[in-house]
Every structure is written in structure tokens, then in C-alpha cells.
Automatic annotation (TrEMBL):
InterPro entries: Cyt_P450, Cyt_P450_E_grp-IV, Cyt_P450_sf, Cytochrome_P450_3A
UniProt biased composition (Polar residues): 107-124
Keywords: Heme, Iron, Metal-binding, Monooxygenase, Oxidoreductase
Name used for this protein in its record: Cytochrome P450
GO molecular function, one term: steroid hydroxylase activity
Organism: Oppiella nova
Region annotation (Disordered) ranges: 101-131
Pfam family, one: p450
Heme listed as a keyword: yes
Length: 264
């Protein structure tokens, strides 16, 4: 979460030393059990949820991140105007993109067609920048991903390694060969990546995936037709432990990810 806060907002959260920091507190509210029903209804029956006044996220938490984003955007634009200091985070990239589009004659407002006067819109031209609401949505998504899913994966990987000592020893030996840990070096740690993939298979951080059928689909030889536009809910826990796809599905076997047939 500290990394997400620094890379997106350019703020120092220091969640380990400050557990009562507002960002930490409001994220905990989002993941509290009280919001489970609201989130389920918002995902599966959005019209009913709207009629009942239910929101996917806690409204007070959303209001906090709304105000936080507005404040950071205002402060950043003010500092850029009167100082030469710049940050290299997501918010700054959006501000720089907005300036670039204005130089080209594009309007970043969501209410205006972002095409310069006298020109036609083509596929290669920019379409404006993210609105504040879109920035908030992206920020929420990044914080949610960094707060719960990453920690869940780390906790489960430690559990599976502690109960499979041969895997733990093998991973330790591979990590011992690495002198520094960067994006360029970790991508070549094949067993580490296999351990992460196998952990995600056995303990997927998300319990449900929502998809929409893009065309009429016949379900095998069952005779069942899934009409276009149908909401499809996928339960990854069951899919990842289906013996038709995974030999010994309940066993922690990172080596299965070395097979060239798997995707990704």
C-alpha cells in the first residue's frame, strides 16, 4: 500500500508505523464485512442496488478519496506553476498529458469533443485526459489491489511454502543465486514465478469474476444457449481445483507451471 500511495499520489503513507493513518483506516472500511451485501447486490443486480440506495464502496470512504484526489491535484498544479519541482507519479503524468493535449489543441474536458477546430478525429489522435472522477476510480482500484490482493497472495504463499519444505528449499536456493532484486532480474526467477502462480491457483484473491457474454454461446453438448448480454459469474476457486484441468488439484505443485501448454 505504501508503494501504491507513493507511485500514484506521491504521498508517504507509512502504514506500518502509522496504522491509524486515514488512508489505511478508510481502506479497512471498504473491506469490512458490512459492505459484502452491498457489493454483491451492486455487482449482480445494479438496478435493484440503486433502487435500495446501496453503494459498492462505503460512501464515506469514497468521499475521503474524492477529497484527497482533489486536494492533491490542486496542490500539484499550484506547485508546478510556482516551482520547478516535479514528481514522477501517476497524478503528475496525467497533468503533463493534459498540458500536452492543450498544446495540440485538444480539450481534456469530458463534455467537449477533444478534436481541434477544423480537424477530424482519427484513431491516432489523443482523446483527452482522465477526469477527476476517473482519477479517483483508478486510485481506488490501485489501492484495493495493493491493500488486499497482494497481501493475501503473500500470506498464502508463505503458508504453502511452510507446509511444503522441499518447495521452500528449492525456492531458497534459487533466490540465493540472485545478487539484486529488480524487475529485470526477478523475471528470470522461474521457480519464484511458478510458486506465485501456484499460490494464485490454490488461493485466488478474488472470489468472483464478473463477465458479460458478447455473443450467443452454446454450452457444449448440453443444448443450453447463453444469450448475448448475459451476466456470467465465474467462481475461480472451483475452476482452479477442477481435476479435469489440474492433476492432483489440491496439491501445491509449482512445477506444473513449467509446462509449455499453460496460459499465461
Amino acid at each position: 500500500m505504501d508503494v501504491v500511495g507513493a507511485s500514484f499520489y506521491g504521498i508517504n503513507i507509512d502504514s506500518l508505523n502509522n496504522p491509524d493513518q486515514p488512508v489505511e483506516r478508510y481502506l479497512k472500511r471498504i473491506f469490512s464485512g458490512n459492505g459484502t451485501f452491498s457489493q454483491a447486490m451492486s455487482s449482480m443486480a445494479p438496478t435493484v442496488a440503486k433502487w435500495l440506495g446501496l453503494e459498492f464502496f462505503d460512501t464515506e470512504s469514497t468521499a475521503y478519496f474524492d477529497a484527497l484526489t482533489d486536494r492533491i491535484l490542486s496542490e500539484r498544479k499550484h506547485n508546478n506553476k510556482y516551482t520547478n519541482s516535479r514528481r514522477t507519479d501517476f497524478v503528475q503524468l496525467m497533468i503533463d498529458s493534459e498540458k500536452s493535449n492543450r498544446d495540440l489543441g485538444y480539450d481534456s474536458s469530458s463534455d467537449v469533443d477533444p478534436t481541434p477546430e477544423g480537424e477530424s478525429q482519427t484513431a491516432g489522435q489523443p482523446k483527452g485526459t482522465l477526469t477527476p472522477d476517473e482519477l479517483i476510480a483508478h486510485g481506488m482500484s490501485l489501492f484495493v489491489a495493493g491493500y488486499d490482493t497482494a497481501s493475501s497472495t503473500m500470506i498464502h504463499s508463505i503458508f504453502y511454502l511452510s507446509t511444503n519444505m522441499d518447495c521452500q528449499t528449492r525456492l531458497f536456493e534459487e533466490l540465493s543465486t540472485c545478487t539484486e532484486f529488480t524487475n529485470d532480474t526477478t523475471v528470470h526467477l522461474k521457480y519464484l514465478n511458478a510458486v506465485i502462480h501456484e499460490t494464485l491457483r490454490l488461493a485466488p484473491p478474488l472470489t468472483l469474476y464478473h463477465r458479460v457474454c458478447r455473443q450467443d454461446y452454446k454450452l457444449g453438448d448440453t443444448g443450453i444457449i447463453i444469450p448475448k448480454g448475459t451476466n456470467v459469474e465465474i467462481f475461480p476457486y472451483a475452476l482452479h481445483r477442477d481435476p479435469d484441468y489440474w492433476p492432483n488439484p489440491d496439491d501445491f505443485i509449482p512445477d506444473r507451471w513449467f509446462e509449455s501448454t499453460h496460459h499465461p
